[in-house]
Amino acid sequence: MGSHGNNLFGAVSSSVEAVTRPSHCDAISQQIRTFIQMRTNLKVVDNSGAKRVMCIQAKSGKYGAKLGDTIVGSVKEAQPRGKVKKGDVVYGVVVRAAMKKGRSDGSEVQFDDNAIVLVNNKGELIGTRVFGPVPHELRKKKHLKILALAEHIV
Amino acid sequence: MRLEKCWFCSSTIYPGHGIQFVRNDAKIFRFCRSKCHKNFKMKRNPRKVKWTKAYRRLHGKDMTQDSTFELERKRNQPERYDRNMAEQTLKAIPLITKIRHHRLQKHIADRHKPGKKKELERDNKELEQDINMLPKKVISKAEPLKMKVQVVPPQTQENLMEE
To answer: CDD domains attached here (chain A) (predicted)?
Structure first.
């Protein structure tokens, strides 16, 4: 079943599950599939104005944030006229994670990239639209607004 | 609970197995095991990878059209529960799988038939032509089968020495 990275919980500092052997197929589609921790760049998938956020802190989790968790981030790249500017410290909810998340029926889901949706410290969305697929793990975390705005729920 | 099909090899994915990969265009790829998942990450086309069902069906190795496949066709409308129908379906499933299995084996056997025939012809021809390559003991034993046999003269060395 979920061989959830057998060495991940052993490592203390950086838990990179990347394929370290250089192979011909490596660079193409080997997303580093690990927790979302400090310095992790995430894509912003709402219309709040930010484009890229760097994680400063994972609000929960000893090793980092997973799918559905909240993080604190610093906006690294933003659209000129948006609700957030570059350098702002924002909260975000992880809606897509490259690391696989186990579900109660035994299956595991993983997405193509790491993506967040910006939220204020109370948990309310900053943007008004959400792009791309979102997992239904958000329902358990009570992020119902995100699910309501989502294009596709997985 | 739904039994899914692996995107790469088309085998059934039972609960608790495999990984679902969701692409950003919301297309879901389900894999039965890491072998299929890794092949997918390598961007291999399942229609070109010999051990997958996709390849086998494409190249006529496996049966493609048969009435036994109708049972497993995905129906997006859920059926209203009917006890009799459920009972009959449950009885039919093992029967239909058995029939499909037999038909598949027959399909494969039929596919092998012309090859087997050719192999037999080749073997007969080889026996006919190269019988003298066999040791004398075997040839003498085979005589009752009425085969053309070349008798090797026993004093070859003396003949050579004479010459």
So the answer is: Ribosomal_uL14
